Amino acid sequence: MSEIYDVIVIGAGISGSTIFYLLNKYQIKTLLVEKSADIAGGGATKANSAIIHSGHDPKPGTLKAKLNVRGNYLWHKWVEKLNIPFYPTGAMVVATEEDRQETIYELKERAEKNGVEAYIISGEEARKREPHLTEKTTMALVTPTAGIIHPMRAAIAPVANGIKNGGELKLLTEVTNITRDEETGLLNVHTNRGIFKTRVVINAAGLFADKIMAMVGEDWFKITPRRGEYLIIDDDAPLHVSTVLFPTPTPISKGILVLPTVGMEVMIGPNAENLDKPDTATTIHGLQTVIKGAKKLVPFEYEKWAFASFAGLRPTGNTGDFYIAHSETMKGVIHVAGIDSPGLASAPAIAEMVVDMVGELIELKEKPEWDDTYEFPPYIKFLPEAMRREITKAREDYGKIVCRCREVSEGEIVDFIRFTPGVNDVDAIKRRLGVTGGHCGGTYCLPKIMEILAREKGILPQHVKKSADKEKAFFVFVKGGDVR
User: Cα dihedral sign for 429, 430, 433, 439?
Assistant: First the structure.
């Protein structure tokens, strides 16, 4: 008989990753499956605003409101345990002369109902805190518990910890069906890598959660991909913000933001565009909309100083709220669907809720030896000079800068390749360290990164792939000018 799992989690985005983390606190056998080649490699988690929202915005009484507030509280604890880059920047919802001032008071009332600390300041005080704000600023709602996080590391660390505590991860594993084994009562999770048997299935498939629901006979739930486009501003630009800056919200979006990133750059976006199918291409119209919206908050020459753009997709469901529930048609299946904004902020609380639901299906006994911590390799760009000298003295490769734009060393790349879960392609390294995403677009660092990957994986440089879930490797120029 094939191996039997107690719980299989489908999807290694932020919801699946944090659920996997908490499940491995218990004496059960767990498996996390992800169809991409990397944790959060193809979904909403890798491309978003990276904000741990305070919880002031969701409608009181909704799951979004409840889980956002609890998730914010938990993230402030988890980032220390899991060594995730996080800055408690706070946030301001800014009203200008063109806005309804009543909106700020309405949001304050909503924040109070949700149990979120919030207070109103004058436009003058807002501009003292953020001097680049428009002179048309009339007032702002401050929510001090908001912050910014590294979204990829926020997903990677829980998975790495889950593996450390006995869980299993299978990448490039796409679920094609879920059936019931009538003889044993177990669930069969059909994948491109065979069938896995389990007692419980958690559907945390992000943009494709509705397709998993349809597999078990629940085709009423639909997800609409909502594209948001962003621009990243050169860190040499004469622009600095230290707070997440929101405009007054619209019915479908929190609006176009101006905010800092954990890499200490300024980012603007997103717009909000509903699509018929997933598409992460940026568009001229979309980026123009982002620039126009950002200028209402912070007037600046974004066109001159923007050096990178990207787009992310929010898996917006048709219920207007997160949908977290036991399957109505197949016992043992739990759906975690429609996790759009504030999904990143809510993730730890979603995980708590789902684990409680798993406990309604199978017995959960805590592991006496559970270790809830994780340690990433050093991020030398942000270390004090004395610590950098100490590390480079012990490890010579930490003194060899490979990516000049992001100040990433060979040692950091090597450690991320070797760590569990390791990386197998250039894009995975980029998501962790930002390499190839600077001003040069990888023209300086890419050949060296390919060389390091080839050496560490024991393959030829021409076999190194940009993304391991794509068929083609990079083209490599060899002696004589041939392309192979």
Answer: positive
Q: Which residues contact 300 (CB under 8 A, 6 or more apart)?
A: 132, 233, 237, 239, 294
Closest CA to 191 of 5, 355, 464: 5
Amino acid identity, residue 396?
E
> Rounded CA gap, 130 and 471, in Å?
47
**Which CATH number is associated with domain 1-86+148-222+318-375?**
3.50.50.60
* d(C-alpha 304, C-alpha 332), whole Å: 54
User: Block means of pLDDT (10 residues each) for the chain, length 484 residues?
Assistant: 89 98 98 94 85 97 98 98 96 92 95 98 98 97 98 96 97 97 96 97 97 98 96 94 93 86 93 92 96 97 94 95 98 98 97 98 97 93 90 94 94 94 91 89 92 95 86 52 42
Instruction: Name the fold adopted by 380-463.
Output: Arc Repressor Mutant, subunit A (1.10.10)
What's residue 251's pLDDT?
67
User: Annotated catalytic, 53?
Assistant: yes
Catalytic residue among 53, 56, 150, 335: 53
What DSSP letter does each residue of 122-154 carry, written as one string? Answer: EHHHHHHHSTTS-TTEEEEEEETT-EEE-HHHH
